[in-house]
Known about the structure:
By secondary structure, the chain is an alpha/beta fold. The protein is built from nine helices and 13 strands. It has helices spanning about 45-55, 70-80, 120-130, 140-145, 170-175, 190-200, 240-255, 260-275, 280-285, and strands spanning about 5-10, 15-20, 35-40, 60-65, 85-90, 95-100, 105-110, 135, 155-160, 180-185, 205-210, 215-220, 225. The strands form two sheets. It has a nine-stranded mixed β-sheet with strand order 5-4-1-8-9-10-11-12-13, sandwiched between helices. A four-stranded mixed β-sheet has the order 3-2-6-7. A hairpin with a 5-residue loop joins strand 6 and strand 7. The radius of gyration is 18 Å and the shape is globular.
Amino acid sequence: MPAPPTVAICGPASWNHLILLDHLPEPAPHMQFARRSWETIGGTSAGKALHLADLGVTVRLSSLLGTDIEGQRVRSALTAAGVAVEALTTGQTERHVNLMTDGGQRVSLYVAVPTTPLQHELRITAEAVAAADLAVIDLSELGALLLQRLDAHQTPIWADLHDYDGSSEFHEPFVRAATTVFMSSDSTEDPWELMRSCLERGPRLAVCTLGADGAIALEASGARHEVSAPPADVVDTNGAGDAFMVGFLAATLHGATVDDALKAAVAQARIAIESEHLHPKLSEVLTAP
């Protein structure tokens, strides 16, 4: 029996303080009461790793995590949730304060950012990526530095471009290195054209989420695909895009067609949307004595 596929994920994991408000603050001095607040794990790579592990995929997360209390919390919780974590050295763990509303509006305040990865650790991480069957290289300084070391033809790379507008220079190496790219429609009026422009630079498949309207995909052959989003009881939209991408990825690893992978993707996104954490598993892990 062949060994199960392994996925390497490289990018951000953070400790987040989430604050739910009736509305986002106005740009003027004032006092405002929070409806509720809680602390949890954040970071696009952490979210992907959590959902992949829950789907039974062997995953290794490489992320910059400090020896501070926040870094210890992140590493401990991810490990307890079944994620193999490779903590890269940094002076401080990434931390955010997210101001949110029930309608999905969000302002993310970066209160601590990690330091630049060490060269010898970048080499070790690049070797781990080369040994994996598939790699997700997320937008970050770590991801950008890794792409400079990787042979694009050695391990298939998937990239999550988030709210890409089609012209950002920072995103460019991620687009060109990837075989499959994901993005949201937040920064474009024509998602089909945005995906087409990405495919011109190398990827074979582009997928774009449309929020409550579902998602669409475009193959290099020109084939188009669409899926509707299932109804969901929205608790927190943080991490929905990461869960979507992972649902698609896991289904693809099991041989699903693009249409079936899209259905798996929106189903997985619903799991994140209906949880106050990146994945419901964290509810157990973070409250365990």
